[in-house]
Design brief:
Length: 266
Amino acid sequence: MIDTTSNRPVRHLLGLSGGKDSSALAIYLRDKIPEMEYFFADTGAELPETLAYIDLLEDYLGKPIARLNSERDFEYYLKYHNNYLPSAQQRWCTVNLKLIPFEVFAGNDEVISYIAIRADEPSRSGYVSKKSNIKTSMPFRDDGINKEDVFDILESSGLGVPKYYDWRSRSGCYFCFFQKKEEWLGLKKHHVELFEKAKKYESIDEKTGRIFTWNQIGSLDEVIKRAEADQTKVERKNKKTVPKKLIDAFCDEPKDTEDACLICTL
Ligand code: SF4
């Protein structure tokens, strides 16, 4: 396809988050759109499992995945924001580490951006750029691909799901403020050094007494206490009923966090 105004080929871009949906979309489109360009906006705070999965995917796709943000990572923007942690209300992390790098990567070329919204997600829209040169395409929605199909695509490719699915429902930064308390507990169990690092970002403003934490519940220690208490309750209940497999429990994707961080986690 040629952009008739510049006579340059239209670029086909697919952003990978290390999550199941964008990974499955890359696999699904590999042979359909050979000119596809892949990119991964690395925040500098990704889980090791995510980075390992992106490497595996790169081998499978047989093409380089462009890593964005090599110079300006989370630490850089945290300093820029006077050490104010990002939050659901102040999402400077997504803007600076995901959205802007994508738009810079696209430049002024005519671009089709492929988004992994599935057919069973009618209310989701994903990130649609306001730049007129960037059009979006949602092949899964157009082709009726649902969550079960996504798992089938990943299994048939031999890649399977990223390893963090053993304890966490989505990709994204290890300290993402959208994660659930049981996922914080998972981080502590699987990557105690990252959990401790996340704790160090929390602080109290001596002048105002204002507390800056990742979670509204309180400090991460408090979050863990509550998660452990919940876990004990669930374990007691599960002794009486048949427990769900962990991956099924995570993949329920509760509605309240459904649109939490689409560009970071699809
Ligand atoms: S994953 Fe979470 S913390 Fe990381 S950029 Fe996205 S919203 Fe921000």
